[in-house]
Task: structure prediction
Amino acid sequence: MTISSSTAVNFDPPVATMPRHRKLKLWDWAPYVFISPFFILFLIFGAFPLGFSIYLSFHQWDPAMGLEAMKWVGLENYIFVLGDDWFRQSLWNTIWIAIVSGAPQHLIAIPLAFFLNIAFGHWRNTVVGMYFLPFITSTVAIALVFNSLFSREFGVVNQLLTHLGHLPILEWVFPSTNIDWTKPEYVRWQIAFVVWWRYLGWNTVLYLAALQTIPRDLYEAALVDGATRWQQFWHVTVPLLKPMMFFAITLTLIGNLQLFEEPFILTGGTGGIGQVGKTAAMHMYNTAFVESDFGTASAVAWLLFLFIAVLTWLNNKLFNHSGLKDH
Amino acid sequence: MKFSLKRSMIALMLTIGSTVQANTTITIASFPDLDRSAKVAIPLWKKKYPKIDIKVVSLSYADHHNAMTTALATGANLPDVMAVDMGFIGKFAESGGLEDLSKAPYNGLQLKDKLARFSIPLAMSGTGALSAMPTDIGPGALFYRKDLLDKAGVSEEDLTKSWESFIEVGKKIKASTGAYMLASANDIKDIYIRAGLQDGEGIYFDKTGKVLVNSPRFEKAFQLAKQARAAGIDSKVNAWSNEWSESFKRNKIAAQMMGAWLAGHLHNWLAPDQKGKWRSAVLPGGVYASWGGSFYAIPKKAKNKALAWEFIKLMTTDKEQQLSAFRTVDAFPALLEAQTDPFIDQPIDYLGGQKARRQWLETARRIPAVDVDKFDPVANEIVNTELEKVLEQGKDIKTALTDAKNLIERRVRR
Result:
């Protein structure tokens, strides 16, 4: 925007000499024609669904009945959702999983990226690629693999644990019988573990990219001052990583609060016993496709959106407060 | 020059027009394995209507029903014939987006006596419209491993006498073979809540929409499930999960209650190596229940309704077609005429030469015509959640059922 307006000022003939009603030639339309595909696609696939879902959230609608069956109910859907135990529980599950899987991601990804940046030499890209692999693999495939790893009777995890449990000294630490990972107390941990494993590489790559923008001189200067590796990491790397930390944590926040595929497949779509692994996005899906209540599902979607917006804003405040703006 | 061009253009347009007329295509939207029976029908259809093509569009089970929901919502991309599974028939029948087949020119109810008695009411909406025609039914059966029963020294009669004896047998089998009697204690609940229903009664709701969950039927069902869990005879896996199919292969499941079509699944992929070891029995405690079934419907906005109806009639009331679907995809015919074919009395190798189809037919004849409700899936989800709380967290059954009732009432907002 700024560029085009400044060029207009610099290169256009003075306003006075311009004809008042210049006829637009076919030629003048060209830029609009060329840029139109984006706007047309955006209107169809971006703006319209957004608008429609807001409109829908004020209606009661079973889609199998056709568009004519929409019934205006005002704020009723929102009131219903806010008073709904299932929604509140799913929101709580989502936050739990978001924190338990999200926080360790960053706590490990930053030192890991620092380590990868100085170690491995020529092999670095290969190692980074391996860490990145879970991120680009299909979620469904990952969830299915973990599903069979954590299978109670036949899973590798249980076989390993019980095997260790039968060894002389380790029998105090490890279980001797198979653990049922679908029990309510384990389900959330299981989901959080898979999510943590999946996005660790992604965050590492983000931090690695940021590390490479830190000028080498700073480290050299630190070295001259006699700083140890740890001091370099703490006083040079971490402060300069802050903008990327803000970015990466924001992405984690948004991503983890919209979590759907992993818990959906790991719990067979039910959310597990007592629905302890049912996330807000799963609740939305169930409301829409099991209960055929698209109006309420849209209301859930917008409440979730508001919730994510507030948390992102808080995150922004927090980082500004800790001096993001200085950099 | 110009003139001839114009003339050839007209000629071209005419040929296009006539080919379109001659080769109308009707679209059938379906899901696996049901799509195979539609494909099997094509030669038969071509004999009757050589100039009309059939296009079978097939999506996975869940995708198909979601796609049909959105198609009905927008009125776009609707097929001429829509296959609907039992799990969705209540929802689709109430939707009003489907043709009422009881009215002229279809007059589908005139065919009522030709079809399994309980199947027609499933496709009827609360207002008495017939939204779909049944093509296959799923009489419920108890499949069990004869070899494991022999090893435990128990008989089929012990298994099916009553639910209490069923649980006792389960304990013996678990002790002597290590196999579980049930995939999930939930299965018992699912069957028991269908026990003893009369024609016209609903599972979760009565005709006026009253929630029936807080009743002795559900209480007993929950108690039995709890007993089974306490006895340790259920392996706590959900049907159709990886763990479930693996359990069959590794001899960890001694019995499974499902529709008669499970025999085909066992044979084809769940446990192909266990040929001859499985048998089919009636459900314990004299319960007759239906497990699924498939229907064909015509959307109100379909283009070729007359042809669609012809196709549906072929799929649902043609003996040859019903039998070929029976043979190819184990779809138990809804058409009574097809149920009298000698094929019914052919022994099934996989079930150790048992003439199980005869047994399934006997079951089919006793299944009550249960009333389905649009909100059945909602009620089902809530009841399952409450049952889990009873089984896993020791919640009191009466409290759980009262909670379930309140939750259902709240969610369906009646």
Q: What stands out?
A: Residues 85-118 of chain A form the longest helix (34 residues). Chain A has a mean pLDDT of 87. Chain A touches chain B through 29 residues (CB under 8 Å).
